Amino acid sequence: MDLLQASVNDKYLALARTVRHYLMTRWLETERRQTELQSKAVAYLSAEFLLGRQLDNSLLATDLEEIAAESLQGLGIELDELRTVEVEPGLGNGGLGRLAACFIDSLATLDVPSIGYGIRYEYGIFKQTFVDGRQVEQPDNWLELGSPWEFPHPEAAVTVNFGGHTEKTADDDGREVSRWVPGWSVEGVPYNYMVPGYQNGRVNTLRLWSARATKAFDLQIFNAGDYTEAVRAQTFAENISKVLYPEDSTPQGKELRLQQQYFFVACSLRNFIEDVLPAGYDLHKLPERITFQLNDTHPVIAIPELMRILIDERGWNWDEAWDVTNQVFAYTCHTLLPEALEVWPTSLLEKLLPRHLEIIYRINKDFLARVRETYPGDEMRARHMSIIAESPERAVRMAYLATVTGSKVNGVAALHSQLLRDKVLKDFSDMEPEKFTNVTNGVTPRRFVRLANPGLSGLITEAIGDGWVTDLDRLSELEPLADDSGFLSRFREVKAANKARFADVMEARDGIRVDTGTMVDAMVKRLHEYKRQMLKVLHIVSLYEQVKSGALPIEKVTPRTFVFGAKAAPGYRMAKEIIALINAVGRTVNDDPAMQGRLTIVFPPNYNVTLAEKLIPAADLSEQISVAGKEASGTGNMKFALNGALTIGTDDGANVEIRELVGDENFFLFGMSEPEVERVVSAGYEPASFYDKNAALRRALDLIASGAFSDGRRGEFEPIVANLLEQDRFLVLADFQSYMDAQARVDTAYADQDAWTRSAVLNVARTGFFSSDRSMRDYLDRIWHAEPVSIDVSSMQG
Ligand code: 26W
Q1: What is the number of structural domains in the chain?
Q2: Which domain holds residue 106?
Q3: Predicted TM-score of the model (pTM)
Q4: Catalytic residue among 490, 526, 614, 659, which?
């Protein structure tokens, strides 16, 4: 095809293939070296990898950006035009999925032998559109035009069994053994993705599994004329990796979800044991060779799967198998919401994975024996700690199975890990305290600073060199420049340019006009009541109400653009109501001439990684306002601070560590601490009392209930207001005044741009700790005990 006929996507594919070709030799060399050395590695098992676009990251990792731009220029092609056609693989919901993507980037950059294992969903996270301000989900057919970054390996397909029953037989030395007689099976086809380290020649692998029928097509049935029946097996099998479950907190307990979890776990263990390890490898040495990191409870079925392989297939006895299984798994918990901890009914496991259920029962029996030994006579404790919950229905508590079996259990921020020890998993921590540790989350500086914010990157590199890209603690060398007025004004120019770029994107993407002369106040994360988007709405509505009632002269209002980005799980009704309210308030406030454009609400649909990369560098204020004790960590908070936004937040998750590092004077803290929340809740929380005693709050809630944002239709948002007045499970009303006071402090601070910018520079200088490279080093020291292995690129051409 000659260039003239080529579409932009053709040109993009050509460039992508050129870059991947360059990486191919490094990929093969990494593989060769790993096979040669057989050194300890890390396998990251995750049901989600929110990768984002790949082209720019690959150009950065190979340092080919400039050459590519020039050679394309020579052909009259703009690199920028090509990068915009890339479809981002949305194979994740939010924090957990994006963290996995940051982690594998850091593992490659730190030269750690590692492999990511997950699912190649044909449809990723849904595309969000707004119809009359309400969320409407569209399927995410991201593979429509194919993906140049994936390499299918049907020759390495794995058969995965399901269903059937188990039968007791005797093995040749007469010992009673259980044998699984599966009912049906599918095939898992691996698709490999390159995970390039930053300019170090290493290219690790992300292996995502896609399901297909063992027998794609039944010709006899077809010839008998029953065409649908002939392909039924195929469609049935493909369903397993068809679509990502869009829930990010409340499991729906769907059978297909468990099928997905077992499917990718069984493929991954089989692949590692039979294809990655050398033939005849003695699995008793597995702990020296690998740690399987379990990214939340979603891959925990891997535990009975490994036991099954070692006992049923390798003929080991229980203790042999348990000894190895105990050492090779480690579990990371990412939540504090009790409802987010997955439990699988034993009835479903009996049907789908009967042999695994037997093994889980045995693990639990041995564990409860240890509990009774340690706490003789304390049956209540044994019942509490049992992996098997008896009510409301008999079910397996996956978090307990992971905690009992894993060598290590970690939370994702200091406060979160402490709450796991003190509350969520207290009994287990009391019994095995040495098993519990913390690794505070991090984000990759390559994507979220170097690529997303070239202006700031240039400024930093000019000041301290470019070592910070792989050693983010070096940002601390910027500290003295916080008092350098020249640097401050350059810093402000960069922020202003990022705002202009964001405004252009908003115009082009959604036809939304952003006034770059305003403070950009951003709240972007999944829509969930514990994250308290409603607190942000009450701030805006209260300001609006005060202006409309004349209590607040419009000229006293700091011009702000409130940027929201948030998807709601399709089944989460209250979350969808809140999205509708935000858009309704936006429509009313934005079009109200009385506001003279001083307050604007911008809510671009379909918030994703690509939009985050454009918004975060443009933000002045980062909203991290969850109720203390509910946000495990947060990672958006880190990205905003590293890009020079100031944080208004509660002492929750990693906000605590951000505030400790940047200093109280560079952080707008508000609200109750976790112990205070605990006290208020246990004392019996009366949300309506705050409505009664706080006039501004009452007027804001009344305005919402009045229909002012719904063309006078009173009932429109009644459910939201009623829920806040009656339950308010996440204490929005209780923290309202403290939040309003903090926002007033923000207005005052923003009026002094020099002081604000100084504070912003200090935020950048003091948050190098939040690099996912540092997180990986912590995992290596505390959990994985694997060593980096460098790839010598000198021998490689090009
Ligand atoms: C089964 C439904 C489901 C799906 C996903 C339940 C829970 C999840 C995830 C654990 C939710 C999640 O993304 N948690 C977020 O993980 C981030 C990375 O550690 C943290 O920074 C966030 O605080 C946490 O909410």
Answers
A1: 2
A2: 38-53+88-407
A3: 0.98
A4: 526
